[in-house]
Amino acid sequence: MAPVPISPLKVGHIDDVQELRKAKSKIPERFVRDITERPTLATCSSSSSGIPIIDFSKLSKGDFDEVLSELVQLSTACEEWGFFQVINHGIDLSLLEKIEKVTKEFFMLPLAEKQKYPMAPGTVQGYGQAFVFSEDQKLDWCNMFALGVEPQVIRNPKLWPTKPAKFGETVEAYSREVRKLCQSLLKYLAMTLGLKGDVLNEMFGEAVQAIRTNYYPPCSRPDLVLGLSPHSDGSALTVLQERRGSSIGLQILKDDKWVSVQPLPNALVINIGDTLEVLSNGKYKSVEHRAVTHKQKDRLSIVTFYAPSYEIELGPIPELVDENNPCKYRRYNHGEYSKHYVTNKLQGKKTLEFAKIQTSNYN
């Protein structure tokens, strides 16, 4: 049974990390991680050179050999990494700059202004800390602001801020372009799985899209805290944009080591979510990832989550199940999984157990 959400975390000077930073306070115990969770050098790898890079222009406009080569790289990225960077994605760079600008302006508003858009219990929209369900749960060194974008029915107009002036307009324009990119990527991902290019987009129905912006202020003791707890995403695709000049914060779990990801200039970092792991019957992996903090530099990220309609029933695609690849996940309603995801704290890939068929069931 899912835990009952507590009242939304009351964001004030005590627990808002920007306010803590301004006050130069000692790190409150609520943020200090157990020793086993702390980001130590022993558990981290500094190299991100292996993160696959996909040239979207070659997929969409290349000749036969270029398309084939990129599709092979895309398939390998999804199987072995669960993450890849997309260059030449076609989204106007001025729009990337605009979304970074209004997002930073929002986080720099006085706390009282941001508190006008509080995150309600059991939801992930608004300003505050998501996935907090108990008074003794450790908090992330991060301020979040999230909005449902599509379909219209998931929007909460009261949470769309009036300041900065062009925030809503910019989010709309940015989200439209990211939606097009996700639809294109799903087409190519279907091809890499040996399926018709339109099968995933048609299966998704009216896809759900949300945006979450994260601000990680510098932290005087980055060795004690986490910017964001380890987790995999419940979406099908996640699109990450980082403000240029941000500290390196994203880390992915690869071969039991945390690997830091350095985003390329103007690139977008894409990762596979739980939904695509289920649809591909485990061929493509939703990978555990987290965020760490920096002593001097802040970090700003803009994250888009793209997933099927809540009304869709999901399970492994039949063409990807056979004697050599038995069915690993049960069928379920995507809305039920989404509710399960947002009413549980972030704990690695534990949420995906909701859909897994236990090995004993094969006997």
What is shown here, in short?
The chain has 363 residues and is α+β, with helices and mostly antiparallel strands. 26% of the residues lie in helices and 19% in strands. It has a single domain (17-362), classed as Sandwich (Jelly Rolls), CATH 2.60.120.330.
CATH architecture: Sandwich
Number of helices: 9
The CATH class label is Mainly Beta
Report the biggest beta sheet as strand number plus sense, adding barrel if it closes.
8 strands, mixed
Main sheet strand line-up: 2-3-11-8-13-6-5-4
Fraction of residues in H or I helices: 25-40%
Overall spatial form? globular
The class by helix and strand makeup works out as alpha+beta
Oligomerization state of this entry?
Answer: single chain
Tally of individual domains = 1
**CATH fold naming:** Jelly Rolls
Pattern of helices and strands: HEEHHEHHEEHHEEEEEEHEEEEH
Rounded to an integer in angstroms, the radius of gyration calculated over CA atoms is 20 Å
Return residue spans where pLDDT drops below 50 for at least 5 consecutive residues: 1-13
